[in-house]
Amino acid sequence: MPKSLDSFAPCACCDRPLTEEEMVTRCHEIVQEYKDKPGGLIPALQMAQSLFGYLPKPVVKAIADGFGKSYSEVSGVVSFYSFFSTRPRGKFLIRVCLGTACYVRGGKDVLEALKKKLGVEVGETTPDRNFTLDVGRCFGACGMAPVVMINDTVHQRVKPGRIGELLTRVLTGENPTAERERA
Ligand code: FES
User: Which of 37, 72, 94, 112 is the most buried (most CB within 10 A)?
Assistant: First the structure.
């Protein structure tokens, strides 16, 4: 009988990163949860990524073994979908929209400001593991360009000169809609 998903929750008291061995142990539980469900591989990978923040090789291998598939087959699935990452991600995933509307209204400048402020390039994570920087191609909010998505929250009309302010608000959990109100 698989454990409840609550059993996967990270330790609230120490919040230390799991070792790869601990991740693999939890993968066995994830596999039990999904292996008999039709199309269960993708949700299992999503669950593993939600819990660990990324999909390191031992995790992909454990899930492949659990589903009776080859490592290369599951690794191919992971590389096919852009929402999977084999590198550690920060607590906050920042995606700068570079779709046409956002690009022409300053999305590139927003991206450059974020690179400078965070000291990382696209695809990289800050050393404190707070932020990962990425780009996207339209989040469906073109009328509010330029747009930045941070985890599941869309920040509208983002100004390069206010990037530091935005990051501080994200870290402190301040009202994410404030960006629109101050624009
Ligand atoms: S182009 Fe950026 S939200 Fe559509």
Answer: 94
